[in-house]
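User: Hi! I'm working on a homework problem where we have to compare a predicted structure to a textbook description. Could you give me the structure for the chain below?
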Amino acid sequence: MLYHLLLNYIPCFHAFNVIHFLTFRAILSALTSLLCALSIGPFFIRQLSLLQMRQVVRTCGPQSHLHKAGTPTMGGILILLSIVVGVILWSDLHNPYILFLLFVTLGFGVIGWVDDYLKIYRQNTAGLSARQKIFGQSLVTLIAVIWLYQHAHTLQETQLVIPFLKKAVVDLGPWFIVLSYFVVIGASNAVNLTDGLDGLAILPTVLVAAALGVFAYVTGHSQFAHYLMIPYVPGAGECAIFCGAMVGAGLGFLWFNAYPAQIFMGDVGALGLGAALGLLAVIVRQELVLFIMGGVFVLEAVSVILQVGSYKLRKKRIFKMAPIHHHFELKGWPEPKVIVRFWIMTFVLVLVGLATLKLR
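Assistant: Happy to help. Predicted C-alpha cells:
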C-alpha cells in the first residue's frame, strides 16, 4: 500500500527512490511487523484472557506443563496480523508470489484457528480430526502449487536443486505438484509439532525465514542467480519482503512467548507459519535446503513418526515421550535448556543451509 503510494511521489521527492531496493523494503517490513506485534501484544493478551481463550494442556503430557493451563492461546493471530500489515504496506501487491503466500498462510491459519477454538470449546485436546485437517490443508496447498506449476515460465522454476553439487538438478515435470504438496503440508505440521515449549518453535521459524529471505533475494536477481548457479525465478525477490515481515512478527511475538510464556501461538500460528516456510522454499526452489535449515522441525516430526510406528509394531516406545523435546524434559533437562539448545541447533543448520549458496 505505502509502496504503491510512494511510487507516485518519486518524481517530486527523489529520496523515495530508495523504495525500489528490495533490501530496504524488507527491513521496513520487518520493523513494521515487529512494532505492530509489540504495540498491540499487551492489549491482545488481555482480550484473549477476557474471552477465555486459554490453553488446554494434555493430561498425558509432562506433569511440569500442568501449570501452563489457562495461559492465553491463539497468539498466532497476532503473528499473522503483524505479517499481513508489514506485507501489505511494503510489498508489491501485484506480485502473484506475495498473493499466494498470503493465501496459504492465512488459509492454514484459519484451519488452525478452528482447531484451537474446538479445543477451547470442548475443554480437551481433541480439535479437528486428522482427516479434517488434511482435507483443508490439501485444498489450500493444491490451489497454490497447481497455479505455480501452470504459470511457470521457465524449466528452472520446476526443477529440484540438489545442494552442494554444481548444476545438479532434477526435472520434476508434473511431479513438481506432488513434491510441493508434501513440502508445504510437511513443513506446516512439523512446525506445529515443535510448538510445545515456550518460544521453542518461533525463533527457529524466524531464523529459517530470514535465511529464505536471502535465497529469495538472490533467486529473483538474474546476475546473482547466474553467479551462484541457482535457478533464476523472476519476481521471487519480492518474497524477501514477506520473509522480513515473518522475522519482525516472530520476534515481536517472542517478546511475549519467551519463557515463562505470557501467550502461546496455538495451531493458528504454527500451521500458518509452517505452511509459509514450505511455500517459500518451493518458490525459491530450495526444498532440500529447507530440510537442512529446518532440521529441528524435521527431528520433531520424525520422532513422532518413529514413536508411533514403534509402539504399533513392537508395543515399545523409543523415546520417553514424543515429540522429542518432551523426551529431553523427562530426562531431566530444564525447559529453558531444551529451548536454547534447540535454538542453537537451528542457528548452526541455517548457516549450513546458507553455505549451499557458495559450496557447490
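For your comparison, note the following. The longest strand covers residues 159-161. The chain has a mean pLDDT of 91. Good luck with the assignment!
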